[in-house]
Design a protein that fits this description.
The structure holds two protein chains of two kinds.
Chain A lengths: L3 H38 L2 E2 L8 E2 L3 H8 L2 H33 L5 H13 L2 H23 L12 H28 L4 H8 L5 H12 L1 H16 L3 H6 L11 H11 L3 H32 L1
Antiparallel strand pairs in A: 1-2
Chain B lengths: L1 H29 L4 H6 L11 H10 L1 H32 L3 H11 L10 H10 L6 H24 L5 H8 L4 H12 L1 H17 L2 H7 L8 H11 L4 H21 L1 H14 L1
The chains are: A mainly alpha, B mainly alpha.
Chain lengths: ~300, ~270
Protein backbone atom coordinates (compact mmCIF):
# COMPACT_ATOMS: atom_id res chain seq x y z
CA UNK A 1 0.00 0.00 0.00
CA UNK A 2 1.59 3.26 -1.11
CA UNK A 3 0.71 6.24 0.99
CA UNK A 4 -0.80 9.31 -0.61
CA UNK A 5 2.23 11.38 0.31
CA UNK A 6 4.76 9.15 -1.38
CA UNK A 7 2.46 8.81 -4.37
CA UNK A 8 2.49 12.55 -4.67
CA UNK A 9 6.26 12.66 -4.33
CA UNK A 10 6.64 10.03 -7.03
CA UNK A 11 4.34 11.99 -9.33
CA UNK A 12 6.37 15.11 -8.73
CA UNK A 13 9.64 13.31 -9.50
CA UNK A 14 8.22 11.82 -12.70
CA UNK A 15 7.07 15.26 -13.68
CA UNK A 16 10.51 16.72 -13.11
CA UNK A 17 12.07 13.98 -15.20
CA UNK A 18 9.55 14.38 -18.04
CA UNK A 19 10.38 18.05 -18.45
CA UNK A 20 14.13 18.03 -17.85
CA UNK A 21 15.39 14.65 -19.07
CA UNK A 22 15.26 15.39 -22.83
CA UNK A 23 17.44 18.49 -22.40
CA UNK A 24 19.81 16.71 -20.02
CA UNK A 25 20.19 13.77 -22.41
CA UNK A 26 21.08 15.82 -25.48
CA UNK A 27 23.58 17.87 -23.50
CA UNK A 28 25.19 14.76 -22.05
CA UNK A 29 25.35 12.97 -25.39
CA UNK A 30 26.46 15.83 -27.63
CA UNK A 31 28.61 17.98 -25.34
CA UNK A 32 29.62 16.48 -22.02
CA UNK A 33 30.31 12.92 -23.09
CA UNK A 34 32.36 14.02 -26.15
CA UNK A 35 34.24 16.45 -23.95
CA UNK A 36 35.14 13.73 -21.43
CA UNK A 37 36.07 11.43 -24.30
CA UNK A 38 38.37 14.12 -25.69
CA UNK A 39 40.10 14.37 -22.34
CA UNK A 40 40.52 10.58 -22.36
CA UNK A 41 41.76 10.56 -25.97
CA UNK A 42 44.37 13.14 -25.10
CA UNK A 43 46.30 10.37 -23.31
CA UNK A 44 46.21 8.08 -26.34
CA UNK A 45 47.63 7.60 -29.77
CA UNK A 46 44.79 7.12 -32.22
CA UNK A 47 44.59 7.49 -35.99
CA UNK A 48 40.81 7.19 -36.19
CA UNK A 49 40.98 3.83 -37.95
CA UNK A 50 42.25 1.59 -35.14
CA UNK A 51 39.44 0.09 -33.14
CA UNK A 52 41.00 0.96 -29.82
CA UNK A 53 43.12 4.06 -29.14
CA UNK A 54 46.48 3.14 -27.62
CA UNK A 55 47.21 4.56 -24.17
CA UNK A 56 50.47 6.52 -24.14
CA UNK A 57 50.20 8.50 -20.89
CA UNK A 58 51.41 12.06 -21.05
CA UNK A 59 53.37 11.67 -24.27
CA UNK A 60 51.00 13.94 -26.23
CA UNK A 61 51.34 16.70 -23.67
CA UNK A 62 55.11 16.30 -23.63
CA UNK A 63 55.22 16.68 -27.39
CA UNK A 64 52.85 19.61 -27.23
CA UNK A 65 55.01 21.62 -24.88
CA UNK A 66 58.49 20.62 -26.01
CA UNK A 67 58.45 19.39 -29.56
CA UNK A 68 55.88 21.15 -31.71
CA UNK A 69 56.95 24.40 -33.38
CA UNK A 70 53.63 24.61 -35.27
CA UNK A 71 51.67 24.55 -32.03
CA UNK A 72 54.03 27.06 -30.45
CA UNK A 73 53.51 29.33 -33.43
CA UNK A 74 49.74 28.86 -33.35
CA UNK A 75 49.81 29.75 -29.65
CA UNK A 76 51.78 32.96 -30.22
CA UNK A 77 49.57 33.88 -33.18
CA UNK A 78 46.39 33.29 -31.20
CA UNK A 79 47.54 35.35 -28.22
CA UNK A 80 48.71 38.28 -30.37
CA UNK A 81 45.54 38.11 -32.44
CA UNK A 82 43.35 37.96 -29.33
CA UNK A 83 44.97 40.93 -27.60
CA UNK A 84 44.61 43.12 -30.68
CA UNK A 85 41.08 41.88 -31.39
CA UNK A 86 39.86 42.61 -27.87
CA UNK A 87 41.35 46.09 -27.82
CA UNK A 88 40.35 47.11 -31.34
CA UNK A 89 36.80 45.73 -31.40
CA UNK A 90 35.95 47.14 -28.01
CA UNK A 91 37.48 50.58 -28.49
CA UNK A 92 36.02 51.08 -31.96
CA UNK A 93 32.62 49.62 -31.08
CA UNK A 94 32.38 51.72 -27.94
CA UNK A 95 33.30 54.97 -29.69
CA UNK A 96 30.79 54.24 -32.44
CA UNK A 97 28.17 53.37 -29.83
CA UNK A 98 28.71 56.66 -28.01
CA UNK A 99 28.16 58.51 -31.28
CA UNK A 100 25.09 56.46 -32.21
CA UNK A 101 23.52 56.67 -28.75
CA UNK A 102 24.05 60.43 -28.64
CA UNK A 103 20.91 61.37 -30.57
CA UNK A 104 22.48 61.53 -34.02
CA UNK A 105 20.02 61.60 -36.95
CA UNK A 106 19.41 58.25 -38.65
CA UNK A 107 21.04 56.29 -35.86
CA UNK A 108 18.89 53.21 -36.46
CA UNK A 109 19.93 53.07 -40.10
CA UNK A 110 23.57 53.49 -39.09
CA UNK A 111 23.34 50.77 -36.47
CA UNK A 112 21.72 48.45 -39.01
CA UNK A 113 24.47 49.20 -41.54
CA UNK A 114 27.30 48.40 -39.15
CA UNK A 115 25.53 45.24 -38.09
CA UNK A 116 25.24 43.79 -41.60
CA UNK A 117 28.62 41.97 -41.73
CA UNK A 118 27.57 40.15 -38.56
CA UNK A 119 24.66 38.36 -40.22
CA UNK A 120 26.81 36.94 -43.01
CA UNK A 121 28.51 33.62 -42.36
CA UNK A 122 32.19 33.89 -41.52
CA UNK A 123 33.15 31.56 -44.30
CA UNK A 124 31.59 33.93 -46.86
CA UNK A 125 33.18 36.94 -45.17
CA UNK A 126 36.61 35.39 -45.61
CA UNK A 127 35.89 34.69 -49.23
CA UNK A 128 34.54 38.17 -49.97
CA UNK A 129 37.71 39.67 -48.59
CA UNK A 130 39.87 37.31 -50.60
CA UNK A 131 38.20 38.89 -53.61
CA UNK A 132 38.81 42.41 -52.29
CA UNK A 133 42.44 41.76 -51.43
CA UNK A 134 43.21 40.27 -54.84
CA UNK A 135 40.94 41.64 -57.58
CA UNK A 136 39.71 44.68 -55.67
CA UNK A 137 43.16 45.88 -54.68
CA UNK A 138 44.41 45.44 -58.27
CA UNK A 139 41.76 47.89 -59.41
CA UNK A 140 42.39 50.27 -56.50
CA UNK A 141 46.06 50.29 -57.48
CA UNK A 142 45.22 51.17 -61.08
CA UNK A 143 43.10 54.07 -59.86
CA UNK A 144 45.13 55.52 -57.06
CA UNK A 145 48.67 54.29 -57.67
CA UNK A 146 48.93 54.03 -53.90
CA UNK A 147 51.60 51.51 -52.93
CA UNK A 148 49.51 49.91 -50.17
CA UNK A 149 47.26 48.30 -52.74
CA UNK A 150 50.21 46.70 -54.46
CA UNK A 151 51.36 44.77 -51.38
CA UNK A 152 50.76 41.07 -51.01
CA UNK A 153 48.13 41.25 -48.27
CA UNK A 154 47.52 37.53 -48.14
CA UNK A 155 50.86 36.24 -49.41
CA UNK A 156 53.19 37.81 -46.88
CA UNK A 157 53.08 36.37 -43.36
CA UNK A 158 53.09 39.66 -41.47
CA UNK A 159 50.63 41.33 -43.80
CA UNK A 160 48.37 38.27 -43.71
CA UNK A 161 48.21 38.68 -39.93
CA UNK A 162 47.05 42.27 -40.39
CA UNK A 163 44.52 41.17 -43.02
CA UNK A 164 43.03 38.45 -40.85
CA UNK A 165 42.83 40.88 -37.95
CA UNK A 166 41.27 43.68 -40.01
CA UNK A 167 38.64 41.40 -41.52
CA UNK A 168 37.78 39.92 -38.13
CA UNK A 169 37.40 43.37 -36.59
CA UNK A 170 35.29 44.52 -39.55
CA UNK A 171 33.02 41.51 -39.21
CA UNK A 172 32.48 41.58 -35.48
CA UNK A 173 32.14 45.28 -34.63
CA UNK A 174 28.39 45.31 -35.26
CA UNK A 175 27.77 42.73 -32.55
CA UNK A 176 29.65 44.67 -29.86
CA UNK A 177 28.21 47.95 -31.11
CA UNK A 178 24.70 46.66 -30.47
CA UNK A 179 25.54 45.57 -26.92
CA UNK A 180 27.25 48.87 -26.12
CA UNK A 181 24.30 50.85 -27.49
CA UNK A 182 21.95 48.79 -25.30
CA UNK A 183 24.19 49.56 -22.32
CA UNK A 184 24.36 53.26 -23.14
CA UNK A 185 20.58 53.46 -23.36
CA UNK A 186 20.53 53.08 -19.59
CA UNK A 187 22.69 56.22 -19.30
CA UNK A 188 20.86 59.59 -19.49
CA UNK A 189 21.04 60.93 -23.05
CA UNK A 190 22.38 64.39 -22.12
CA UNK A 191 25.36 62.88 -20.35
CA UNK A 192 26.41 61.18 -23.58
CA UNK A 193 25.56 64.17 -25.75
CA UNK A 194 27.63 66.40 -23.54
CA UNK A 195 30.57 64.09 -23.83
CA UNK A 196 30.27 64.18 -27.62
CA UNK A 197 30.07 67.74 -28.89
CA UNK A 198 31.80 69.56 -26.14
CA UNK A 199 35.33 69.88 -27.39
CA UNK A 200 37.78 69.94 -24.52
CA UNK A 201 37.16 67.56 -21.68
CA UNK A 202 34.88 65.25 -23.63
CA UNK A 203 37.39 62.42 -23.62
CA UNK A 204 37.75 62.80 -19.88
CA UNK A 205 34.01 62.77 -19.43
CA UNK A 206 33.73 59.63 -21.52
CA UNK A 207 36.42 57.97 -19.45
CA UNK A 208 35.26 59.19 -16.05
CA UNK A 209 31.49 59.20 -16.31
CA UNK A 210 30.17 57.21 -19.27
CA UNK A 211 32.54 54.28 -19.08
CA UNK A 212 31.91 53.43 -15.42
CA UNK A 213 28.17 53.62 -16.09
CA UNK A 214 28.34 51.01 -18.83
CA UNK A 215 30.85 48.75 -17.10
CA UNK A 216 28.47 45.73 -17.19
CA UNK A 217 28.38 45.98 -20.99
CA UNK A 218 32.17 46.23 -21.06
CA UNK A 219 32.45 43.03 -19.03
CA UNK A 220 30.14 41.20 -21.45
CA UNK A 221 31.79 42.54 -24.61
CA UNK A 222 35.33 41.86 -23.45
CA UNK A 223 34.28 38.36 -22.42
CA UNK A 224 32.82 37.60 -25.85
CA UNK A 225 35.65 39.19 -27.80
CA UNK A 226 38.16 37.24 -25.72
CA UNK A 227 36.57 33.85 -26.10
CA UNK A 228 35.68 34.36 -29.77
CA UNK A 229 39.20 35.48 -30.64
CA UNK A 230 40.80 32.61 -28.72
CA UNK A 231 38.78 30.08 -30.72
CA UNK A 232 38.72 31.87 -34.09
CA UNK A 233 38.55 29.49 -37.01
CA UNK A 234 36.15 30.22 -39.90
CA UNK A 235 37.44 33.54 -41.22
CA UNK A 236 41.01 32.29 -41.18
CA UNK A 237 39.98 29.02 -42.78
CA UNK A 238 38.46 30.72 -45.80
CA UNK A 239 40.68 33.82 -46.01
CA UNK A 240 44.17 32.33 -45.73
CA UNK A 241 43.70 28.66 -44.75
CA UNK A 242 46.18 29.48 -42.02
CA UNK A 243 48.90 30.53 -44.43
CA UNK A 244 51.15 31.53 -45.95
CA UNK A 245 52.89 28.51 -44.43
CA UNK A 246 51.53 28.50 -40.91
CA UNK A 247 51.68 32.29 -40.47
CA UNK A 248 47.99 32.73 -39.62
CA UNK A 249 47.18 29.32 -38.14
CA UNK A 250 45.23 29.73 -34.90
CA UNK A 251 45.06 27.08 -32.16
CA UNK A 252 41.57 26.07 -33.30
CA UNK A 253 42.72 25.67 -36.90
CA UNK A 254 45.80 23.77 -35.73
CA UNK A 255 43.53 21.36 -33.82
CA UNK A 256 41.48 20.84 -36.96
CA UNK A 257 44.57 20.23 -39.09
CA UNK A 258 46.11 17.85 -36.55
CA UNK A 259 42.96 15.76 -36.13
CA UNK A 260 41.20 15.84 -39.48
CA UNK A 261 44.17 16.64 -41.72
CA UNK A 262 46.95 14.51 -40.22
CA UNK A 263 44.58 11.97 -38.59
CA UNK A 264 46.26 12.35 -35.21
CA UNK A 265 43.10 12.31 -33.12
CA UNK A 266 44.79 11.62 -29.80
CA UNK A 267 47.24 14.46 -30.23
CA UNK A 268 44.54 16.77 -31.55
CA UNK A 269 42.50 15.99 -28.42
CA UNK A 270 45.42 17.01 -26.22
CA UNK A 271 45.53 20.34 -28.04
CA UNK A 272 41.79 20.75 -27.62
CA UNK A 273 42.09 20.17 -23.86
CA UNK A 274 44.74 22.87 -23.80
CA UNK A 275 42.45 25.26 -25.69
CA UNK A 276 39.66 24.58 -23.20
CA UNK A 277 41.93 25.29 -20.23
CA UNK A 278 43.30 28.42 -21.88
CA UNK A 279 39.86 29.90 -22.59
CA UNK A 280 38.53 28.92 -19.17
CA UNK A 281 41.44 30.48 -17.28
CA UNK A 282 41.56 33.67 -19.31
CA UNK A 283 37.82 34.34 -19.23
CA UNK A 284 37.41 33.48 -15.54
CA UNK A 285 40.24 35.86 -14.72
CA UNK A 286 38.75 38.56 -16.93
CA UNK A 287 35.20 38.28 -15.60
CA UNK A 288 36.39 38.32 -11.97
CA UNK A 289 38.60 41.34 -12.55
CA UNK A 290 35.94 43.26 -14.47
CA UNK A 291 33.12 42.45 -12.05
CA UNK A 292 35.19 43.98 -9.27
CA UNK A 293 35.37 47.23 -11.23
CA UNK A 294 31.62 47.12 -11.79
CA UNK A 295 30.99 47.11 -8.07
CA UNK A 296 33.35 50.02 -7.47
CA UNK A 297 31.77 52.02 -10.26
CA UNK B 1 27.64 76.33 -34.53
CA UNK B 2 26.61 73.27 -32.62
CA UNK B 3 24.01 72.54 -35.27
CA UNK B 4 26.49 72.80 -38.14
CA UNK B 5 28.92 70.64 -36.25
CA UNK B 6 26.32 67.97 -35.64
CA UNK B 7 25.19 68.07 -39.28
CA UNK B 8 28.75 67.60 -40.39
CA UNK B 9 29.12 64.82 -37.88
CA UNK B 10 26.04 63.00 -39.15
CA UNK B 11 27.29 63.25 -42.72
CA UNK B 12 30.68 61.88 -41.72
CA UNK B 13 29.04 58.93 -39.97
CA UNK B 14 26.96 58.04 -43.00
CA UNK B 15 30.06 58.28 -45.18
CA UNK B 16 31.86 55.96 -42.78
CA UNK B 17 28.97 53.48 -42.88
CA UNK B 18 28.98 53.56 -46.69
CA UNK B 19 32.71 52.89 -46.71
CA UNK B 20 32.16 50.10 -44.22
CA UNK B 21 29.75 48.33 -46.54
CA UNK B 22 31.72 49.12 -49.71
CA UNK B 23 33.23 45.59 -49.97
CA UNK B 24 29.71 44.14 -50.08
CA UNK B 25 28.71 46.73 -52.67
CA UNK B 26 31.65 45.58 -54.80
CA UNK B 27 30.44 41.99 -54.52
CA UNK B 28 26.99 43.07 -55.66
CA UNK B 29 28.12 45.04 -58.73
CA UNK B 30 30.62 42.40 -59.80
CA UNK B 31 28.04 39.66 -59.65
CA UNK B 32 26.33 41.46 -62.53
CA UNK B 33 29.41 41.66 -64.75
CA UNK B 34 30.90 39.35 -67.30
CA UNK B 35 34.18 37.64 -66.59
CA UNK B 36 36.04 39.99 -68.96
CA UNK B 37 34.62 43.01 -67.23
CA UNK B 38 35.68 41.85 -63.75
CA UNK B 39 39.17 41.17 -65.01
CA UNK B 40 39.35 44.62 -66.55
CA UNK B 41 38.03 46.61 -63.62
CA UNK B 42 36.40 45.68 -60.32
CA UNK B 43 35.42 49.18 -59.23
CA UNK B 44 33.44 50.32 -62.27
CA UNK B 45 29.71 49.74 -62.48
CA UNK B 46 28.66 46.99 -64.90
CA UNK B 47 28.30 48.44 -68.40
CA UNK B 48 25.61 45.92 -69.32
CA UNK B 49 24.30 44.24 -66.17
CA UNK B 50 23.50 40.57 -66.68
CA UNK B 51 21.85 37.94 -64.52
CA UNK B 52 23.68 35.13 -66.32
CA UNK B 53 26.05 34.62 -63.40
CA UNK B 54 23.13 34.04 -61.08
CA UNK B 55 21.53 31.60 -63.48
CA UNK B 56 24.79 29.69 -63.77
CA UNK B 57 25.70 29.73 -60.10
CA UNK B 58 22.14 28.74 -59.19
CA UNK B 59 22.37 25.67 -61.44
CA UNK B 60 25.99 24.78 -60.67
CA UNK B 61 25.46 24.93 -56.90
CA UNK B 62 22.11 23.13 -57.14
CA UNK B 63 20.77 25.92 -55.04
CA UNK B 64 17.20 24.73 -54.36
CA UNK B 65 18.33 21.50 -52.72
CA UNK B 66 20.98 23.32 -50.70
CA UNK B 67 18.38 25.78 -49.52
CA UNK B 68 16.06 22.96 -48.52
CA UNK B 69 18.87 21.12 -46.72
CA UNK B 70 19.98 24.15 -44.74
CA UNK B 71 16.40 25.00 -43.90
CA UNK B 72 15.78 21.44 -42.68
CA UNK B 73 18.83 21.39 -40.41
CA UNK B 74 18.03 24.87 -39.07
CA UNK B 75 14.34 24.12 -38.51
CA UNK B 76 14.94 20.79 -36.80
CA UNK B 77 17.73 22.24 -34.72
CA UNK B 78 15.88 25.40 -33.68
CA UNK B 79 12.53 23.79 -32.90
CA UNK B 80 14.21 21.08 -30.84
CA UNK B 81 16.23 23.63 -28.90
CA UNK B 82 13.09 25.68 -28.18
CA UNK B 83 11.06 22.71 -26.94
CA UNK B 84 13.78 21.07 -24.85
CA UNK B 85 15.21 24.21 -23.31
CA UNK B 86 11.90 25.90 -22.51
CA UNK B 87 10.51 22.82 -20.72
CA UNK B 88 13.70 22.16 -18.77
CA UNK B 89 14.40 25.83 -18.10
CA UNK B 90 10.91 26.26 -16.68
CA UNK B 91 11.01 23.17 -14.48
CA UNK B 92 14.50 23.91 -13.17
CA UNK B 93 13.52 27.45 -12.35
CA UNK B 94 10.45 26.27 -10.40
CA UNK B 95 12.10 23.41 -8.51
CA UNK B 96 14.37 24.27 -5.62
CA UNK B 97 16.06 21.09 -4.40
CA UNK B 98 19.68 19.99 -4.19
CA UNK B 99 19.20 17.68 -7.18
CA UNK B 100 17.56 20.27 -9.37
CA UNK B 101 20.45 22.63 -8.68
CA UNK B 102 22.87 19.91 -9.74
CA UNK B 103 20.89 19.29 -12.92
CA UNK B 104 20.93 23.02 -13.67
CA UNK B 105 24.71 23.16 -13.32
CA UNK B 106 25.00 20.11 -15.55
CA UNK B 107 22.87 21.85 -18.16
CA UNK B 108 24.54 25.25 -18.28
CA UNK B 109 28.18 24.32 -17.63
CA UNK B 110 28.68 23.45 -21.33
CA UNK B 111 28.48 27.17 -22.15
CA UNK B 112 32.07 27.25 -20.94
CA UNK B 113 33.25 24.46 -23.25
CA UNK B 114 34.42 25.72 -26.65
CA UNK B 115 33.18 23.65 -29.59
CA UNK B 116 36.71 22.97 -30.83
CA UNK B 117 37.61 21.20 -27.62
CA UNK B 118 35.09 18.40 -28.06
CA UNK B 119 34.52 18.30 -31.80
CA UNK B 120 36.86 15.36 -32.37
CA UNK B 121 34.93 13.03 -30.07
CA UNK B 122 31.60 14.57 -31.13
CA UNK B 123 32.21 13.29 -34.65
CA UNK B 124 32.80 9.82 -33.25
CA UNK B 125 29.67 9.89 -31.08
CA UNK B 126 27.56 11.22 -33.97
CA UNK B 127 28.88 8.55 -36.29
CA UNK B 128 28.04 5.90 -33.69
CA UNK B 129 24.48 7.25 -33.47
CA UNK B 130 24.22 7.31 -37.31
CA UNK B 131 23.65 11.05 -37.29
CA UNK B 132 26.41 11.97 -39.74
CA UNK B 133 25.90 12.19 -43.51
CA UNK B 134 22.41 13.65 -43.17
CA UNK B 135 21.08 17.14 -42.57
CA UNK B 136 18.45 15.72 -40.23
CA UNK B 137 21.18 14.22 -38.08
CA UNK B 138 22.95 17.56 -38.17
CA UNK B 139 19.78 19.21 -36.85
CA UNK B 140 19.65 16.73 -33.97
CA UNK B 141 23.28 17.37 -33.03
CA UNK B 142 22.45 21.07 -32.82
CA UNK B 143 20.03 20.30 -29.96
CA UNK B 144 22.87 19.43 -27.65
CA UNK B 145 24.93 22.44 -28.70
CA UNK B 146 22.09 24.96 -28.54
CA UNK B 147 20.20 23.94 -25.40
CA UNK B 148 22.59 25.21 -22.67
CA UNK B 149 22.44 28.95 -23.49
CA UNK B 150 18.75 28.82 -24.44
CA UNK B 151 17.88 26.94 -21.25
CA UNK B 152 19.73 29.54 -19.26
CA UNK B 153 17.75 32.32 -20.95
CA UNK B 154 14.44 30.58 -20.22
CA UNK B 155 15.51 29.82 -16.66
CA UNK B 156 16.12 33.49 -15.99
CA UNK B 157 12.87 34.63 -17.57
CA UNK B 158 10.64 32.12 -15.75
CA UNK B 159 11.61 33.77 -12.45
CA UNK B 160 9.62 36.83 -13.58
CA UNK B 161 6.50 34.74 -14.30
CA UNK B 162 4.17 34.62 -11.26
CA UNK B 163 3.83 31.17 -9.71
CA UNK B 164 0.05 31.62 -9.35
CA UNK B 165 -0.16 30.94 -13.06
CA UNK B 166 1.02 27.32 -12.78
CA UNK B 167 -0.96 26.77 -9.59
CA UNK B 168 -4.24 27.82 -11.21
CA UNK B 169 -3.65 25.41 -14.05
CA UNK B 170 -2.69 22.57 -11.71
CA UNK B 171 -5.90 22.93 -9.73
CA UNK B 172 -7.70 22.35 -13.01
CA UNK B 173 -6.21 18.89 -12.78
CA UNK B 174 -4.09 18.91 -15.91
CA UNK B 175 -0.62 17.36 -15.75
CA UNK B 176 2.41 19.55 -15.49
CA UNK B 177 3.51 18.78 -19.05
CA UNK B 178 0.11 19.93 -20.32
CA UNK B 179 0.19 22.93 -18.01
CA UNK B 180 3.53 23.88 -19.38
CA UNK B 181 2.63 23.86 -23.05
CA UNK B 182 -0.89 25.25 -22.60
CA UNK B 183 -0.29 27.91 -19.97
CA UNK B 184 3.38 28.68 -19.43
CA UNK B 185 4.92 28.36 -22.89
CA UNK B 186 2.79 31.14 -24.45
CA UNK B 187 3.85 33.49 -21.65
CA UNK B 188 7.53 32.87 -22.45
CA UNK B 189 7.12 34.27 -25.95
CA UNK B 190 9.66 37.12 -25.65
CA UNK B 191 12.46 34.66 -24.78
CA UNK B 192 11.22 32.20 -27.38
CA UNK B 193 11.62 34.87 -30.06
CA UNK B 194 15.16 35.61 -28.90
CA UNK B 195 16.01 31.92 -28.72
CA UNK B 196 14.66 31.24 -32.22
CA UNK B 197 16.50 34.18 -33.75
CA UNK B 198 19.76 33.40 -31.98
CA UNK B 199 19.75 29.71 -32.86
CA UNK B 200 18.44 30.06 -36.40
CA UNK B 201 21.08 32.64 -37.35
CA UNK B 202 23.84 30.53 -35.87
CA UNK B 203 22.72 27.23 -37.42
CA UNK B 204 22.06 28.78 -40.81
CA UNK B 205 25.54 30.30 -40.93
CA UNK B 206 27.44 27.49 -39.20
CA UNK B 207 30.30 25.96 -41.12
CA UNK B 208 32.53 23.82 -38.94
CA UNK B 209 29.99 21.24 -37.74
CA UNK B 210 28.54 20.66 -41.24
CA UNK B 211 32.13 20.38 -42.49
CA UNK B 212 32.83 17.68 -39.91
CA UNK B 213 29.69 15.59 -40.28
CA UNK B 214 28.63 16.19 -43.90
CA UNK B 215 31.82 16.67 -45.90
CA UNK B 216 32.08 14.31 -48.84
CA UNK B 217 28.33 13.86 -48.93
CA UNK B 218 27.33 15.22 -52.32
CA UNK B 219 23.62 15.00 -51.63
CA UNK B 220 23.43 16.41 -48.13
CA UNK B 221 25.30 19.70 -48.13
CA UNK B 222 24.39 22.93 -46.44
CA UNK B 223 24.62 26.31 -48.16
CA UNK B 224 27.78 27.37 -46.33
CA UNK B 225 29.52 24.09 -46.97
CA UNK B 226 28.55 24.05 -50.64
CA UNK B 227 29.56 27.70 -51.03
CA UNK B 228 32.99 26.87 -49.66
CA UNK B 229 33.38 23.97 -52.10
CA UNK B 230 32.00 26.10 -54.92
CA UNK B 231 34.64 28.77 -54.34
CA UNK B 232 37.34 26.13 -54.28
CA UNK B 233 36.11 24.72 -57.56
CA UNK B 234 35.64 28.03 -59.40
CA UNK B 235 38.77 29.77 -58.18
CA UNK B 236 39.24 31.95 -61.22
CA UNK B 237 35.60 32.38 -62.22
CA UNK B 238 35.02 35.32 -59.88
CA UNK B 239 31.81 36.24 -61.71
CA UNK B 240 30.21 32.93 -60.69
CA UNK B 241 31.66 33.15 -57.21
CA UNK B 242 30.28 36.64 -56.59
CA UNK B 243 26.82 35.52 -57.66
CA UNK B 244 27.30 32.49 -55.40
CA UNK B 245 28.13 34.77 -52.48
CA UNK B 246 24.97 36.79 -53.01
CA UNK B 247 22.80 33.70 -53.38
CA UNK B 248 24.25 32.33 -50.14
CA UNK B 249 23.82 35.46 -48.04
CA UNK B 250 20.42 36.56 -49.41
CA UNK B 251 18.25 34.36 -47.14
CA UNK B 252 20.04 35.60 -44.02
CA UNK B 253 19.83 39.22 -45.19
CA UNK B 254 16.08 38.92 -45.87
CA UNK B 255 15.59 37.28 -42.47
CA UNK B 256 17.56 40.13 -40.92
CA UNK B 257 15.68 42.90 -42.70
CA UNK B 258 12.32 41.35 -41.84
CA UNK B 259 13.10 40.73 -38.17
CA UNK B 260 15.72 43.38 -37.53
CA UNK B 261 14.28 44.54 -34.24
CA UNK B 262 13.94 41.00 -32.89
CA UNK B 263 17.37 39.98 -34.10
CA UNK B 264 19.10 42.86 -32.40
CA UNK B 265 17.09 42.37 -29.20
CA UNK B 266 17.72 38.63 -29.34
CA UNK B 267 21.45 39.11 -29.74
CA UNK B 268 21.57 41.50 -26.81
CA UNK B 269 19.44 39.20 -24.64
CA UNK B 270 21.57 36.17 -25.50
CA UNK B 271 24.83 37.99 -24.95
CA UNK B 272 23.90 39.66 -21.71
CA UNK B 273 22.29 36.54 -20.22
CA UNK B 274 25.09 34.31 -21.39
Amino acid sequence: MISAASKKRLARALDFIALTAPAVIVILVFVELPFLMSVAYSFTKWNGLDKVPQFIGLANYRELFTDDPDMAHAFVFTIAFTVLMVVLTNVVAMLLAVVLAGGIKGRNALRAAFYVPNIISLIIIGYVWRFIFSKGFDSFLDFTHAGVFGLSWLGDGRLAFVSVLAVSVWQSIGFYLVIYIAGLQTVPRDVIEASLLDGAGSATRLWRITLPMIMPSVTVCVFYSLSNALKSFDVIFSLTSGGPGTATTSIALDIYKTAFGASRFGYGSAKSVLLFLLILTVTLFQVTAFKRREVEA
Amino acid sequence: MRRVLSGFFTGAMFLLAALYLYPLFLVAINSLKTFAEITANVVALPSRPTLDNFRNAFALMQYPSLFANTLAATAIGTSGVVLLSSAAGYKLSRTKTRYSWLVLVLCIAPMMIPFQSFMIALVKVSRFLRLTKSVYGLGVIYWGLGVPLSLFMYHGFVKTVPRELDECALIDGSSSLRTFFAVIFPVLKPVTVSVIVLNAMWMWNDFLLPLLVLSGEKRSQTLQLAAYNFFGQYKIEWHYAMAGVLLTITPAVIFYLALQKHIIEGMVAGAVKG
